[in-house]
Design brief:
Elements lengths: L14 E4 L21 H4 L8 E4 L2 E5 H5 L4 E6 L7 H15 L7 E6 L6 H11 L7 E4 L3 H11 L4 E3 L4 E4 L2 E6 L2 E7 L5 H11 L18 E4 L4 E4 L2 H26 L4
Parallel strand pairs: 4-5, 5-6
Antiparallel strand pairs: 1-8, 2-3, 4-9, 7-8, 9-10, 11-12
Helix pairs in contact: 3-6
C-alpha cells in the first residue's frame, strides 16, 4: 500500500518462533532485525533470483518454472516454528479460499529459510495444512546461499537467538509476476480483503484503492471488506468543491453582463 503500495501498514507482531527441536551448534542469521515492514518502494518491480527448489517426491526445479506458468504468492517460514508460521499459513489458506482463483490464477510457494529443514519436513507441514496433494501449493527448501539471495531481494531477515533457542523473523507475503515483485504484505496474518485485491491485480484488473488498516482520514473510495466493493466516501466531495466554486464564480461573473447587454 502507499499510493500503489498499500501493504506495508499491515505489519503485525514480529514472530519469535520457538524451536521445538534441540538446535545444532550456531544457527545462521541473515539481515538486520527491524520492527518495520520492508519498504516496498525499494523492492517492487525488482527481479527475484531464479533459485532451485527441492521438493519431496518431486524432481527439483527452478522457481521460474512456477512463475512462468502463473503468478506466485511467495512466503518463507520454518517448520519448527511454534508460534506464527503455522497460524500465518492457515490465515493465508483462508484468505486464498475467500479470494478464489488459487490454482487457476496464481499458485502459492512456501519455502523454508532454516537449513535444518528438509523437503520431507516441508512435505509434512503441507500435510498438516491439508494441502499436500493440492498442486496449487508448493512446499520446498533451497540451498542456504539461494535463500539468502532470495531474502535480500525482498528485504526479508531472520535472526537466531542462541539464548532463547528461537528464530526472530517477520511474516511476509510477496506477490510475484513473471519473476518480479508486484506487491508485499507483512503481518501476523493475511487479511482476506487484502489478498482479494492482490488476486484481482494478478488477474490484470485495475484496483482503484486499497484496504488499509483502520479508517483513513481522506479517501475518495471507502472499502467494504464484507462485500468486497468500494463506495464513494466523503473525501470525493472535497475534491468536487474547487470545481463547483469555479462554476458558480463563472456564472456569477457573466450573469450581470447578460442583463446589461440585453434588450432595453
Amino acid at each position: 500500500m502507499y499510493g500503489h503500495l498499500a501493504f506495508r501498514r499491515g505489519l503485525g507482531p514480529v514472530c519469535l518462533a520457538v524451536c521445538l527441536a534441540t538446535p545444532f551448534y550456531g544457527q545462521p542469521s541473515f539481515g538486520i532485525p527491524s520492527n518495520e515492514a520492508p519498504n516496498e518502494d525499494r523492492y517492487v518491480y525488482k527481479a527475484l533470483p531464479d533459485i532451485m527448489i527441492q521438493r519431496a517426491a518431486t524432481a527439483n526445479g527452478r522457481l521460474s518454472t512456477v512463475w512462468r506458468d502463473k503468478p506466485v504468492l511467495l512466503t518463507m517460514i520454518f517448520t519448527r516454528c511454534a508460534r506464527v508460521c503455522s497460524p500465518f499459513l492457515r490465515s493465508l489458506q483462508r484468505a486464498a479460499r475467500d479470494a478464489e482463483g488459487l490454482g487457476r490464477d496464481y499458485r502459492i510457494v512456501v519455502l523454508s529459510f532454516d537449513p535444518q529443514d528438509t523437503a520431507a519436513d516441508m512435505d509434512r507441514m503441507a500435510e498438516s495444512l491439508g494441502v499436500k496433494s493440492d498442486p496449487a501449493w508448493i512446499f520446498g527448501v533451497a540451498s542456504p546461499s539461494d535463500i539468502r539471495r532470495l531474502a535480500a531481494a525482498v528485504g526479508f531477515w531472520f535472526h537466531w537467538d542462541p539464548s532463547l533457542q528461537q528464530y526472530d523473523h517477520p511474516s511476509l507475503l510477496i506477490a510475484v509476476e513473471q519473476g518480479r515483485v508486484m506487491r508485499m504484505l507483512a503481518g501476523a496474518e493475511v487479511p482476506s480483503a487484502s489478498l482479494r485485491e492482490v488476486a484481482q491485480e494478478l488477474r490484470g484488473k485495475f484496483v482503484s484503492s486499497y484496504a488499509l488498516a483502520g479508517k483513513v482520514a481522506f479517501r475518495c473510495f471507502e472499502y467494504d471488506p464484507n462485500r468486497g466493493r468500494y463506495s464513494l466516501d466523503w473525501g470525493v466531495l472535497l475534491m468536487l468543491v474547487p470545481a463547483t466554486c469555479a462554476l458558480f464564480s463563472v456564472a456569477w461573473a457573466f450573469f450581470p453582463i447578460s442583463r446589461r447587454t440585453g434588450p432595453p
